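Database export, one record per block. Field names are fixed; values are copied verbatim from the stored entry.
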Amino acid sequence: MLLREFTGRHALIVFLMAFGTIIAVNALLAINAVRTFPGLEVENSYVASQEFDAKRRDQEALGWAVRAEMHDGNIHLMITDKDSGAPIEVAELQATLGRSTHPRDDFSPEFRFEGTAYVATVKLAPGNWNIRMVALADDGTEFTQRVRFYIKG
């Protein structure tokens, strides 16, 4: 069996291929991370942190529980009293429905209150979805929550 001598040129080629692969993979991951970044949640994180505890206390004082389910092509957003389970009709509801990883599929469905839940007719692909909702209570308290749900495929 004839073996060729391992030279400095061979070592350089192995070195460049190994590190070239690492750099290419890191570049690909960085490009995809930036491309799928949904954007900023708040403009000024310091100001948001100063208001966080007061907003949390106000929301907890409302005593609301929120969950979402998909039935027969309709998304049901249930806002209920934590203690009694009674449905709550809010003064105003704004909601954005989308994926947690990228804003490409984001949209704002038209929710209508149907006595026990807010309902919107939507067509969603299987997978994880989020509703980023802002509800206004009758007393003016803002209730903000991200509601996660899963659609089987």
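Remark 1: Helices lie at 8-35, 45-62.
Remark 2: The radius of gyration is 25 Å.
End of record.
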